[in-house]
Amino acid sequence: MSGAGPASPGRSGSALPLPLPLSLSLTGDRKREVPAAGTLLQPIIKDVGEIYSRLLDHRPVIQGEIRYFVKEFEEKRGLRELRVLENLKKTIFETNEDILPKCKQSMHDNLNEVLQRLQAANDTIHKLQEKEHEKRKIQADKLMAGEEKRIAQQETFLQEQQSKREEVDEEHRKAMERLKEQYSEMEKELAKYVSF
Fold it and tell me: Which cysteine-cysteine pairs are annotated as disulfide bonds in the entry?
């Protein structure tokens, strides 16, 4: 991992210098150099420092993001938001001062005209309703008069029928009496002839 990516200053080079290799005497008068522990640990310490700076130290990344945000907001945009807000303020002021009063006046004039038309239409409808009500009342009165006349005619008819029925019943009773008398006389005459 050594040499890959940026290392934070003071971190990767913070390894302590280690002593140079020591020479050891071995049997047989051969001198052999044994590498010192510090020389083996230096690359490991350097790699650990780089890993630490990449995983745990986020200051360089955050500082870069902050610089980018400030640059984007202040330098690139400039006074664009301020100009937009000033244009909105100007538009609102013009609307409040010029357009809104004109709209109110136009609406007031048109609404008065519409109100007058509605009142005229309402009066006309009211008159039509009164005429319709009068026609219905006259028609209902005619129907009531016709109903009363029909009831009177029916009562007269029923009375006439009753009197005619009584007359017919009386005639029938008289005819029955005549027939009884006639048959009784015929029986008497027949009884005279039977005795012979």
Answer: none
